[in-house]
Design goal:
Layout (H helix, E strand, L loop, with lengths): L4 H8 L4 E4 L4 E4 L2 E7 L2 E6 L13 H12 L8 H5 L4 E6 L4 E6 L6 H5 L7 H5 L3 H4 L7 E7 L3 E6 L20 E5 L4 H10 L4 E3 L2 H8 L5 E6 L3 E6 L10 H9 L3 H9 L7 E2 L24 H10 L3 E3 L2 E4 L2 E2 L1 E7 L5 H11 L3 E7 L1 H10 L4 E6 L6 H5 L19 H11 L3 H17 L3 E6 L1 E6 L3 E3 L10 E3 L3
Parallel strand pairs: 17-18, 17-19
Antiparallel strand pairs: 1-2, 3-4, 4-6, 5-6, 7-8, 8-9, 10-21, 11-21, 12-19, 12-20, 13-20, 14-15, 15-16, 22-23
Helix pairs in contact: 7-8, 9-11, 10-12, 15-16
Length: 476
Amino acid sequence: MTGATTPITYATYDTLVQYNPRTKAYIGVVAKSWEVTPSSIKFQLRSDVKCRDGSAFTPTDIAASLKAYMDPKTGSPYATRWLGKAPLTFTADDAGSTLTITAAEPFGSLLAGLKMVPLVCPAGLKDRARLASGAEGSGPYELADSKPGLSYTLKLRDDYTWGPSGMTSGAPGVPETIILKVINSDATAANELLAGTIDVSGLGGVDAQRVESNKSIAKTVVATQGQWSVVGNMEAGHVTADPEVRHALFQAIDRRALLLAYLGPTASDIELGTSVLPPNMPGYDESTKELVPEFSPEAAKATLSAAGWTESGGHWTKDGKVLQVRVIGGAGWGNANEYLASQFKNIGVDVKLSVTDENGWLADLSSGNYDITIFPIDGSVEAPTALMSFYVGALPPTGTNFIRNGDAELTAIVDQAAASVGAEADKLWATVQTKLLRNYDLLPWQVPVTPIYTSPKVTLQINGLPSTLAIRRTKG
């Protein structure tokens, strides 16, 4: 299998819960059940969980792990994103196997964040140096060998009985050994998969097509919790500050054609976005798909005309100014940037196109030196609060509101939703999605997926499990 850090982490460490994007439901790992309010979660924990060294993993131990993760000295880059900015208090009851986490301020995404936080056992907290080359968790695997940059060997524990979705040491097909090979080339990974020297790999582009021609290789498409959109700079002084200009530009885009320009034939695996949130994320409102602008160059021209722009000589003008947009994009996005520029030119909009490497694109995005760009949010987004931080709130460099949206009413609703749980949160997130789409703040484009290819020796049983733990032997 290719890859390293994330597969190792979630194979050697447990979390309190996991999330099954197919059912949009949380499933217990170390936790058996939980009661959620906007500012607290009470977990009933399993009493049979053991650390790698065989010691019991108690509620007090788990509280200590979470406290360490939040400690600024630890330097966890996602601590405030996953666990919130307000202080947390932990009440552990070892006799009753409960752990209550209380936030000083309401934070409705706490459960979503906790599914991301690996729990470190006392041995690892006592001697942090052991975590640099090994793993001190309660997960189903131990890190038996580490050759950084080359390979990592995981060995199955024989006493793991508490995993989610039937993931136990004795479950049929659970591999006793997993070797994670670091392969930095899709071409090399494809060659090894076809040769039978590896059994699992993610692939893209022409190498994926090459592997798919071999009918013995199976493909599993796993949807992520990210979403790519096309966005406009809403800051005053930019032509795209006008929602009707954004509306017209979005109408000029055939989203499926944009996918083909980006990915070529492999675009067939990708679903078009239907709202601001991806369908497998809590808070997604399917009804808002009706607000996504349909592709129509003629409608785009009509929108501009209704907004006071005049078409003459192949250009649009208003108040003596020519309609011109600066489109920026990353060099790794195939022909997607060029497609956007050509579509805008086709409706008479003047275009300045700037395609740079990722650092150059991010510098332009952060400084607001753009009018239109593709905005990629990949599968690391665990909850609506994290995704919305890109669309509202503080501007760079102190924040991540890259579209420079100054809608105070929208920001207030996002804050309300972030402090809510359950049906109330869903209702507020639906309002947020509606406002963003009705104001043409963004055009949902694609929900990225991860295609995983497997040899005949193995199969995948995802069911909300991290991909490493979903591997099952079929033979050999």
